[in-house]
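Before the break, one more example. Copy the sequence into your notebook; we will annotate it together after we see the structure.
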Amino acid sequence: MKTDTRFTLALEQLMLHPQFVEIAQHCQNLLPTAVADQHGAANRHTRNLATEIGAYLNGTRIGGTAEQVPGWLRLGVIEAWIAYCTGTADTCMHNPTVDRPQPVTAAPWRLNTIVCLACTYLLVPKKGSVADRTCDACGHECAGGGADDPIYPSVVQFGSLIYQFAVCTSCREDVLSTPGA
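Here is what the structure looks like once it is written out:
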């Protein structure tokens, strides 16, 4: 089931609101302490893991707010997050759900699929396949490998979600030139 675009756009609008951080903090303060603690632990674990993945990929950290992430990427992350939170995403056999906070992963080439860390291998496209070489921003099919037309595997973290994506050289420059990069 595909996420309703209205929800995705509404959440994006909220995330771009100048007072979003305060609004989110207020909502978090309304959670029971045990739930807030579990989500906090999952978010810290995911942030640390995303940092490790970024270092492994020789990555560059881009900004920490919604407006500092390119729109195409922000909308993909939001759509995956909504599918996860509403329970409409396909999941691995471990059935990760938002009411049992843990790090999870998603990718644009496996739309509407959320998996736990142990099952991240389910999101890996076949090496050398079209999905393995296609830029998730513009759709350009890169030569890949050590060629003059590489594809750059990347991740972005949102709460307990690690969203995997890959970009071509041109789109990588667009991501890196984002304000706050």
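The longest helix spans residues 33-56. The radius of gyration is 16 Å. Try to locate both features in your own notes.
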